[in-house]
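Database export, one record per block. Field names are fixed; values are copied verbatim from the stored entry.
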Amino acid sequence: EFSFKHALIATGAKPRPLGFPGAECLIDSTDFLNLPELPKLIIFVGGGYISFEFAHIAARAGAEVTIAARGADKLAAVAQEMTDQGFAASALPMDVSDIAGTEAAVAEHGPFDILVNSAGLARHGPALDTAPEDFDAVMGVNLRAAYFLTRAVAKGLIAAGKPGSLINISSQMGHVGGPERALYCATKHGLEGMTKSMAIEWARRGIRVNTICPTFIRTPLGAQTLDDSQKRAWIEEKIKLGRVGEVEDVMGAAVYLASAASALVTGTALLIDGGWTAD
């Protein structure tokens, strides 16, 4: 179980010599890492395992969380489970492909201090075989919806005069290419460019915009790929640390970007890829 207190205790230390006159360890108090409770209101968009897991972590850190996705029954069950555990959680049925509906929902229930958007779609195949309807569907969720969702949350913050942290879950494929991934890579490279530009526009308003770029993560959604022995061998060869990612590998990055520990971080991508993009 994640705990800010446990994390801080593990890293706190008294000043100690570093081996030359006048030098000492800089980590002399828990203030060094600057990890307070998370801001009060966070919206998690996407009905996947990663979104739900981080919602639980954020709630345990003291945040009020809103979980938004299409599956109303599933959302309600997750929110109720968190409420039963004593956390502040609510469900917000939302289809991110409905831009007007998304903007209205964000305006009604916000402003949100933090956005964590993990909504995404993948349809892999040779570029020569990409159908226009597949192109529109993947681009519509991965880039178009992310663009207008991020903008909607930013508008609420700007109207309220509040700072914030806007996080989109991108991919290592936003920085490299891959076989049968031309369409997916196009959306994720676009998301990275969008992030940098929005970060520049809103920086003076105290709004930070970043992405988290995981490698292949072991989730129910990714099981089909990882269960293929040939694909699994290719993946593990590309990941320098020699293993696929676990959901827990992504959580630390999300907590970091959501908290004041990353107060000077904007317009960048945090790669959780085991070294995939190092070569």
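Remark 1: Strands lie at 41-45, 64-69, 89-93, 114-117, 164-169, 207-214, 269-272.
Remark 2: Residues 1-33 form one domain.
End of record.
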